[in-house]
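@channel anyone free to eyeball this complex?
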Amino acid sequence: MADFEPKIVAFLCNWCAYAGADLAGVSRLQYPSSIRTVRVMCSGRVDPIFVLEAFKDGCDGVLVAG
Amino acid sequence: MTQKLFDLAGIGQERLHLAWVSSAEAQRFVEVVINATEVVKTKGKFDPNAFEYELAAAEMTLSGETLRWMVGKEVKITSKGDVYGRQWDVKSFETILDAVLEREYQKNLIYKAVKEGHTSVRDIHNKIGLDLKRISYLLADLEKTNKVEFTGMKDRIPVFAVL
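replying in thread with the prediction:
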């Protein structure tokens, strides 16, 4: 299990977390490559159904950040 | 609420993370991602096929109108009171919301089981592991709302089918 790399779907708000992620990239901060980003215009756009859909398609975790 | 539902479904709320990160907080974003990755790592791999019933029931529950209405009305009811003029504090409202969530989830789990061909109470019990009494009680409820019907007896065992 040591090299298990989880797949995490991240719903990021365009204005907050996505910009934060962008800045993290620009300032060359290291973070795990386990996240797959989905940019949404607002984290209020994320419906619980999206989360379930992600799990159905076999991801290991979901992160909603706004 | 979705986290609570994940606990009910046995998926575990640790798999769902919520965080608020502002655009200027790159460092915080990195922390959040690292933390989420670590927690999910300890939970191990998620197999959607093993949770087929649970996911289907959770989806039906979250898209069902009962919970959508309740969540939509929460602020109004806890601040202005309900249509009978009764006041609700957030805590008591959420206690009821949790109970409704559990009930709806179990009902949908039964519905899914009947749909997949588990037609008797015992059969459903063996499939989803819910208490026998609870299953018959919720089946009666599903019958009332025209989701499931009683189709007759087979070897002295009542048989149900989805509508």
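from a first look: Chain A touches chain B through 38 residues (CB under 8 Å).
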